[in-house]
Task: inverse folding
């Protein structure tokens, strides 16, 4: 974990506020999506669902294919929710970013209990969100979330990423935004990103969550930043953004979130 500890120190040294950002694109993005204090009706509905999950005492099995198998154990939904759900601020950011980029096709790897996908889908019923969850019992609760919020523009695929992703890509989609929040391993993260590259366009973004979750994830993020296919990267402490934007000079940003 030494690299992760060091990365937090580096973040504190490099982090910039809005007034020190000289890219018009990133400045505008920061102003509209990161600093936004707007409150939409959808936020209240999604947070009400979060509250329900955080008090749900039902037990379900939770074999985790991404960060270590715990087969045979059961967990209360409220405990899974407390550990795995995206924070409200992060969820609002996903909503604002989708809105800003006018996303029509979104992919999420790692549905968890459905809160992040709900934020991704709530800004526009015409935006199709495909989300993949490797744990069937968790996927069932995510479906409950989407139903309770009446979000009919989300399609959940239950299965391992390595099995489901090729099937999704076989339909030759083009994604405006991809949110990776599942398998927290270096090789897997790099593999998924490389698989997705042919399905991105010139203004697509890939969001990698938990970039400081482990040394592996931090190394994955550093490797992704150097890939020729991405011209703008933004380090937001917990998550990292990778924009294609081949028409823009290569730049890496570290910003307050």
Result:
């Amino acid at each position: 974990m030494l690299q992760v500890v060091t990365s937090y120190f580096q973040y504190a040294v490099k982090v910039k506020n809005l007034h020190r950002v000289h890219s018009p694109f990133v400045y505008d993005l920061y102003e509209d999506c990161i600093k936004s204090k707007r409150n939409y009706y959808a936020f209240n509905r999604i947070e009400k669902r979060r509250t329900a999950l955080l008090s749900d005492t039902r037990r379900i099995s939770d074999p985790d294919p991404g960060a270590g198998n715990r087969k045979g154990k059961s967990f209360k939904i409220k405990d899974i929710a407390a550990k795995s759900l995206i924070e409200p601020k992060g969820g609002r950011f996903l909503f604002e970013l989708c809105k800003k980029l006018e996303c029509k096709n979104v992919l999420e790897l790692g549905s968890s209990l459905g809160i992040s996908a709900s934020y991704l889908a709530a800004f526009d019923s015409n935006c199709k969100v495909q989300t993949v969850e490797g744990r069937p019992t968790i996927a069932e609760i995510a479906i409950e979330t989407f139903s309770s919020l009446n979000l009919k523009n989300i399609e959940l695929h239950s299965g391992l990423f390595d099995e489901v992703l090729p099937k999704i890509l076989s339909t030759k989609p083009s994604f405006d935004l991809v949110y990776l929040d599942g398998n927290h391993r270096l090789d897997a993260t790099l593999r998924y990103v490389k698989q997705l590259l042919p399905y991105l366009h010139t203004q697509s973004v890939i969001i990698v969550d938990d970039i400081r979750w482990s040394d592996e994830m931090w190394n994955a993020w550093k490797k992704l930043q150097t890939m020729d296919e991405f011209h703008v990267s933004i380090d937001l402490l917990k998550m990292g953004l990778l924009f294609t934007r081949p028409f823009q000079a290569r730049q890496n940003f570290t910003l307050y979130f």
Notes: The chain has one domain: 2-254. The longest strand covers residues 200-208.
